[in-house]
Amino acid sequence: MALPLSNLQPIAAFHVQQRRFPIKSRPLARFNHEKARLHFFSSCKRFNYISPVKSASVNGYPINKDSLADNERVELSEKLKKWVKFVREILPGGEWWKLSTEGVEDLISAKPVTVLRALKKMWELIAQDRWVVFTAFVALIVTAVSEISIPHYLTASIFSAQSSTIALFHQNVRLLVMLCITAGICSGVRGCLFGVANMILVKRLRERLYSTLLLQDISFFDSETVGGLTSRLGSDCQQVSRVIGNDLNLILRNVLQGSGALIYLLVLSLPLGLCVLAICISLSTIMLIYGQYQKKSAKLIQEFTASANEVAQETFSLMRTVRVYGTEQQELGRYEKWLERLAGISLRQSAAYGFWNFSFNTLYHSTQVIAVLIGGMSILSGHITAEQLTKFILYSEWLIYSTWWVGDNLSSLMQSIGASEKVFHLIDLPPSDQFTAKGLKLQKLMGRVEFVDVSFHYPSRTAVSLSIFELYYN
């Protein structure tokens, strides 16, 4: 809004200084970016218009349209760089997927436990009841063979009914019913026996770990916290409970079924079988990478959980001290720090599982498309029949799903072993010399004890706890 001017005397010229105009009146300036003109609204018409300017200035530095456009282009390029960097970080293999070991470097510095070594340790624990495991494996083999034969007789029954071959239809139906009953009975026996073996494994693993900890030297308990040890006995040992009853059981069953399906496909049609085999190899490669990542992340989750339990146990055991000094918020902050790190690892695990499912579904549907295309051309050329193509599609789906189950349970197995690595390291610890040394029988005992120039420190602490001293005792 224009302000009225009073007592304004006409002047011929006025001096313009930097950043202000020494005008007695108080005109209101308005800058129009589109026309780049400067207008003054005043009661005096003498100052209504000033010739258009070529540029504006801020703090004495000129700014024009070209410089504004350059700034916009720079900002746009910076945003694009940030988005490219973000996409590169979240893609598989980026910085976001790297698992931080801050705070637990000493705990995970030990040599990793391989799958074979862990399975060997488990077999030592259940070797006394090996008949349970052997019977479960026999039931597993019978179940796998029965289930892999069902699609063949199912397809044969359908096409024999279509061709009105009654005798062949009845024979296929009888075999199909017998296979279904056999597979159901053996599957129940297999599940029961693997569950029993699993229970024996967890029980003896906890017994072995507890007995090993009891025989350690006192200095061992100075370096290990009670919360960490109880976490190993509890949650870490519980992770092993899925190995025999779930992981090994399903891995072996699907390996047998997948091998049978692959042999059947190669015999039925070699080109189609090789295409499905290539897809299964790709899926297995992704499976191995995913399994290794799950193993490392599971190990870190157990370490972070043990650290969080340690903080909680320290706080609860010293609750009176915490209340006196008013450090409740500090203790809550320590606990939340480990919870945040646990949430970060779990988020990456979920994202990795999403990529694994994406890969499986993509390859699985690719198999269906390839089977229909190549199989349809083979039918048109007369190389295979519609019955053979139907069997091929059923067995190719069976093979892909078997590969997926093997990968999923193998990653679960590696996750369980990674979570229980600390347990396998602890059960390998040798007992203290106090329990293994035979000792020495003294021939003569005198009642004088002398300590001369003695200093000592705790094994878990490098600083000297007591200086040199001398002590005589009779």
TrEMBL record:
It is a multi-pass membrane protein. The chain crosses the membrane at residues 131-155, 175-201, 262-290. Pfam families: ABC_membrane. It is found in: Membrane. It comes from the Eukaryota. InterPro entries: ABC1_TM_dom, ABC1_TM_sf, Type_1_exporter. Residues 134-415 form the ABC transmembrane type-1 domain. The keyword Cytoplasm does not apply. Keywords: Membrane, Transmembrane, Transmembrane helix. The keyword Oxidoreductase does not apply. This is ABC transmembrane type-1 domain-containing protein. It comes from Rehmannia glutinosa.
